[in-house]
Amino acid sequence: MDSVNLEHFLVVGAVLFAIGLYMTLAKRNFVGVLIGIELMFNGVNLTFISFSRFVESAEPLNGHIFVIFVITVAAAEAAVALALAVLLYNLRDTIDVDRMDLLKW
Questions:
Q1: Confidence band (pLDDT; 50, 70, 90) for 14?
Q2: Of 87, 86, 10, nearest to 53 (Cα)?
Q3: How many domains does the chain fold into?
Q4: What is the pTM of this model?
Q5: Are 49 and 89 in contact (CB under 8 A)?
Q6: DSSP type of residue 93
Q7: HSE on the CB side for 72, CA within 13 Å?
């Protein structure tokens, strides 16, 4: 049986990113868009960890440090976005992305 190498992890990371991008662009529900963004973050995190593990010239913890920053940004993004979703639902009684026209003149 062949061992798992860097290309396998990169393919899985690219697939996660592509699924997240599709969900972000195709969903009309605000929560579905947030899930897509989180999937894209996870695809990038997997790529960072893979390069940290398999590339010999890289420092051993560089990928892990980037992942910690990405997780921190993702948590802050999720908190703000969910607060916006609750506010939008209170004002419009829906979380449909197409009806977010509160900032139009």
A1: very high
A2: 10
A3: 1
A4: 0.80
A5: no
A6: S
A7: 6
